[in-house]
Amino acid sequence: MERQLNLLGNSNTIPHISTYAQLHGHHDYNARPFIPLGMEALTHDKPHRRKTFAQHCSKGWVLGISPEHYRCWKVWSKDTRATRVTGRVFFKHKYLTNPHVTPEDQVMAAAANLATVLTANKKANQISHKKFKDLQRLQQILRKTTAAPRVNQDDYLT
Predict the structure, then answer these.
(1) 137-146 LR contacts (CB < 8 Å, sep 24+)
(2) Is the full-model pTM beyond 0.70?
(3) What is the chain's Cα-based Rg?
(4) What is the pLDDT of residue 76?
(5) If pLDDT is split at 50, 70 and 90, which confidence band does 75 have?
(6) What CATH topology corresponds to 37-95?
(7) Tens of pLDDT along 110-156?
(8) Coil, strand or helix at 31
(9) Domain range list for the chain
(10) How far is 10 from 25, CA to CA, in rounded Å?
């Protein structure tokens, strides 16, 4: 973790180089590629370590690079519950997507905002009791609607 933070941060005395370059010299990215820690990865299992028709890969998470080896990573394996050094790794970074806001999320956020406004307005006595009850009922309807399971349109076509 310290190595990656030093690679990302600028030096205080020489701002155009990284902290790592000032402390340890130039970092060779070909020998030790920069990979985010904790990323899910699949590591290759050697044929003599697995059965004939078994999976060829094990799931694990990257703990960092192995400084003693060329282009190798330390990976914590889920199956063996141990750390291993491997050079054959498939990183699952391409399958990570940015979260997007669904219509259900927008309705839930609106309901939460409504609850905040209702609480603040009720305390200030800015609205009448009848309007407050109507808004509370609307909030309950919104919560029930967003909590209900979504119906797939394809189910009606078959």
Answers:
(1) 138/114, 139/111, 139/114, 139/115, 142/107, 142/108, 142/110, 142/111, 142/114, 143/111, 145/107, 146/104, 146/107, 146/108, 146/111
(2) no
(3) 27
(4) 93
(5) very high
(6) SH3 type barrels. (2.30.30)
(7) 777 777 776 776 555 555 666 667 777 777 777 776 666 665 555 54
(8) coil
(9) 1-30, 37-95, 103-150
(10) 14
Structure tokens at 14: 């020489």
Please write down the HEC assignment for all residues of 111-132: HHHHHHHHHHHHHHCCCCHHHH
Question: At residue 55, what are phi and psi to the nearest 5 degrees?
Answer: -60, 145
Could you read off the pLDDT of 114-126 as tens digits, one per residue? 777 767 765 555 5
Coil, helix or strand at residue 44: strand
CA 40 to chain centroid, in Å, comes to 10
| Strand stretches in the chain, DSSP E | 40-44, 57-65, 73-77, 82-86, 89-91
Tokens representing 62? 């990257």
DSSP label of 89: E
Counting every residue written for the chain, the total comes to 158
The answer to whether residues 116 and 108 touch, using CB atoms and an 8 Å cutoff, is no
DSSP 50: S
Query: Three-state SS for 48?
Result: helix
